[in-house]
Amino acid sequence: MRWLHSCTNLNENKAKQMFTILTYNNISRAGLDRFPSYGYRFASQIENPDAILLRSFDLHNKPIPESLKAVGRAGAGVNNIPVADYTKRGIPVFNAPGANSNAVAELAIAGMLLASRNIPAALNFVKTLDGDDESINSQIELERIRSIDGVLSVRVI
Question: Do the beta carbons of residue 39 and residue 82 sit within 8 Å?
Fold first, then answer.
């Protein structure tokens, strides 16, 4: 019975506790929604934050709030955070270095596809097309023949 009473008190205190998180930069709502719906308040202006969440904002010239318990950086590196100052105060600094690795991979693959299929040059050619359907089709056919002739000329040599 005593254990059950302790758990009940713990849950009541947990529901009453509110952590305030100061956000710098534009932190994605999708990321903030990963926090439980109770117990956390996010704002770009908070006087006594429990934590700071930022991306590229420079904290070097900002005073460290007495209430601060942690700093989280959404991204790789901590060059915008005076880690030594926070460490002296016992405040941990976290970062998320692999959070954008999927985006980087997608950009690399897109770049390879653009380069391998000559898409930028093709897009530039399409932008030069002008006229009605018949005229555009003629321009495309002439460019196709010119391109094939250029390729065949190179291969014959």
Answer: no
